[in-house]
Amino acid sequence: MTLEEGRFLVKLARRAVETYVKEEVKIEVPQDTPERLLEKSGVFVTLNTVSPGSDKRLRGCIGFPLPHFPLAQAVIESAISAATMDPRFPPVREEELDNIVVEVTVLTPPVLIEVKDPKDYPKKVKVGRDGLVVERGSYKGLLLPQVPVDWNWDEEEFLCECCIKAGLPPDSWYDKKTKIYSFKGIIYEEESPHGEVEERSLTE
Questions:
Q1: Are the CB atoms for 91 and 83 separated by under 8 Å?
Q2: Residue ranges matching CATH 3.30.700.20 in the chain
Q3: Fewer CB within 10 Å of terminal CB in the chain, N or C?
Q4: Are 142 and 148 spatial neighbours (Cβ–Cβ below 8 Å)?
Q5: Residue 8's pLDDT band (boundaries 50, 70, 90)?
């Protein structure tokens, strides 16, 4: 994935959000989309609100952890959903658009972490590199690789918080019935609303 392709995805996500919020119209995948971005991939779109004198605040985050859809299409769907369907927030209003920073995280497929003893999970997880999926029965939760970095969590805190995201007790990763998956990602993010797009790799 190149920086130019990342810029294309972020601009596509922003256009999808703005068009839907203003006109309630879902844009189509552009004809000039690079061929690589038509391949299936997991992706999340994150919207953050920024204002003078304050840190950015989450405004919506939704995506597809598995590569079920072509990447460009998945970005459009995720962007609109992040703006209008994140159950934690009301839908984005038109007057908010100029204060929103768009972030696209392209994901690798989740891989099951195999351990003999659940106590070994923290040794298999690396903050700053891995995203996590916790799954037990019908309970499932996902946290992106950048989340523990933003919150200064260590590996155990990361595992606990992902269990909470799944609707489970924080120590559920000790239970052998709980499955833990890891994935990696590359983040493309506007430096400011409508601003330049920078790349942050979390795949090393």
A1: yes
A2: 3-108+185-202
A3: C
A4: no
A5: very high
Single pTM value for the model: 0.84
Give the separation between CA 10 and CA 170, rounded to whole angstroms: 33
Q: Cβ distance 203 to 108 under 8 Å?
A: yes
Mean pLDDT estimate for the chain: 94
| Domain 111-183 listed as CATH 3.40.50.920 | no
| CATH value of 3-108+185-202 in 3.40.50.2300, 3.60.21.10, 3.30.700.20, 1.10.760.10 | 3.30.700.20
Task: Report the chain's terminal Cα–Cα distance, integer Å.
Answer: 14
Q: What is the per-residue pLDDT across 57-73, written as a single tens digit (0 to 9) for each?
A: 999 999 998 899 999 99
Neighbours of 53 (CB within 10 A): 4
**86-142, pLDDT tens digit by residue?**
999 999 999 999 999 999 999 988 999 999 999 999 999 999 899 999 999 999 999
